[in-house]
Amino acid sequence: MAQNQHSIAGLILAGGRGERLGGVIKSELVLGGVRLLERVAEGLGACSPLMVGHGRIDPAALHLLAGMVAVPDLDGDYAGPLAGLAGAIAYLNALATPPELLISVAVDTPFLPADFVARLVEGLGEAPAAVAVYGGQPYPTNAIWRVARFRELPERVRAGTAPRSLKSLSAEAGGVSIEWVEGDAGDPFANINTPEDLANLQRRAATAGAHRA
């Protein structure tokens, strides 16, 4: 199943405030000389539209690149990635021709594999959703969603009847897992929640840069 047979939107979940990092805006952190927002955008390739879920952060503070679409969380008592996905689905529902697929990714996942989009599309098959897995660890923010199957998510969020997490949402719909083979490069979905995480991934970026030099 070739990637170019599908219309694929992208969603970068960038609403986290990095409380354990001193309240920084995660998308503004720099690894290997590149902002996290830009590193992740590169991993999403030609996904269009490319949305950025900004949560309660002023989108101006994210310094979005040309062509990126700022999408707020859906109003309601939901928060986090689930609210971000619901906001993105609401945006896509309003388009004249919504895309078939939506790929979501956390903004603090700076080492997305080169085959990220292609593997998700291929592994989805006929399933409604698929979640990336590495070393037995699922990463529900890094996933693919069949837009038509989740068209009612915004209404369910407003009504309070939707699951409270992306993991639960995928499981409820009968989603599948897509396992990445473990390799020397390390976890391609490693994210940044603490100063130690940041330091570790900064070292990893420096090492990767040295290998390319």
From TrEMBL:
Major subcellular site: cytoplasm
GO BP term, example: bis(molybdopterin guanine dinucleotide)molybdenum biosynthetic process
Subcellular localization, as worded in the UniProt entry: Cytoplasm
Pfam families: NTP_transf_3
Catalytic activity: Mo-molybdopterin + GTP + H(+) = Mo-molybdopterin guanine dinucleotide + diphosphate
Similarity comment: family membership: Belongs to the MobA family.
Protein's UniProt name: Molybdenum cofactor guanylyltransferase
Origin species: Devosia insulae DS-56
Gene encoding the protein: mobA
